[in-house]
Design brief:
Elements: H1 4-37, E1 40-42, E2 47-49, H2 53-59, H3 64-93, H4 100-108, H5 115-125, H6 132-139, H7 154-179, H8 183-191, H9 196-207, H10 209-224, H11 228-233, H12 245-254, H13 258-288
Antiparallel strand pairs: 1-2
């Protein structure tokens, strides 16, 4: 006769079954199929095995080096700016402000906008001769640059738009983390004569570390696989100046090279895993060490 503990253990596995099925159907099966089709030349009706040819062809892509470099720059800058600005805004909006809720709504508003709509809007605003941004700069005597046409400036212009759109989500995560800090710490510091700077530096910043780690991981992963905003604003141009790995993959899909594009997706998947897994371990260790 089976023991009660054994029966209870089997019974608990049934609660894992729905999540396991969803994970398998929506994530595991597509990933395995992608790995398989990366070694094929396929269409919607047929496929042929071609071995490593797709990977060799993908790595011989002339713009791939630029794509790798731009992807890393894009991920590091968007993540870094969201981490810093999100913390400053989160700490500010947790203060005793009368319009606190209103300001929170304004900062979070760009997050809910369509990325395509944001890209089209800022493409218009950044037009070198007809855009509102250069028009305002001209009024105060500053010649506006060609934000999206200058190959040395275009990538950073898109990065600023990405940060504008995504910093609201980082701020909300920080606000949740800061509000979870016990008020006793702040009261003890005030009794000891601590200033507002000391409150932020010695209490808010170290104790909001879990929220900061979440922002780092989410924004870094989002930057590595970013595509829609950069494609809407520059389509990888001028030249290959703003090409990311994701935009190179899209160009291959649109050209009908489905197997080649699938191999690119597998490479991007592996790249993200290689960068994010060690980063996640480092962040967890540093959080435990606090």
């Amino acid at each position: 006769m089976r023991s009660v503990v054994h029966i209870e253990r089997e019974y608990s596995y049934f609660f894992l079954l729905p999540a396991t099925l969803v994970f398998g159907v929506l994530f595991l099966v597509p990933v395995l199929l992608s790995f398989f089709f990366a070694f094929t030349r396929w269409t919607l009706t047929e496929w042929n095995l071609v071995g490593w040819d797709n990977f060799i062809t993908f790595f011989s892509e002339p713009s791939l080096n630029i794509g790798f470099r731009n992807t890393l720059i894009y991920a590091v800058f968007t993540s870094g700016l969201k981490v810093i600005l999100g913390f400053l805004l989160g700490a500010f909006l947790c203060g005793p402000l009368r319009t606190r809720d209103y300001l929170r709504s304004i900062i979070f508003f760009p997050t809910i906008l369509s990325t395509i709509a944001v890209g089209i809007t800022f493409s218009t605003l950044m037009h070198p001769s007809k855009g509102l941004i250069n028009g305002v700069l001209q009024l105060i005597g500053i010649p506006g640059p060609d934000w999206l046409g200058n190959p040395h400036l275009a990538l950073f212009s898109v990065i600023l738009v990405d940060v504008w759109k995504g910093v609201g989500m980082a701020t909300v995560i920080y606000i949740a983390g800061i509000n979870a800090i016990p008020k006793d710490y702040y009261e003890a510091l005030m009794i000891d004569g601590g200033s507002s700077f000391h409150k932020v530096w010695y209490i808010t910043l170290p104790l909001s570390r879990p929220a900061m780690n979440s922002v780092i991981l989410l924004s870094f992963i989002g930057g590595l696989r970013s595509f829609d905003l950069i494609w809407t604003m520059t389509k990888g141009g001028p030249g290959f100046a703003t090409d990311l790995i994701a935009s190179i993959i899209y160009k291959q899909y649109s050209g009908g090279f489905y197997g080649l594009a699938t191999a690119g997706n597998v490479i991007l998947f592996i790249l993200i895993a290689i960068l994010v897994v060690p980063l996640n371990r480092f962040l967890i260790k540093s959080e435990v060490a606090l």
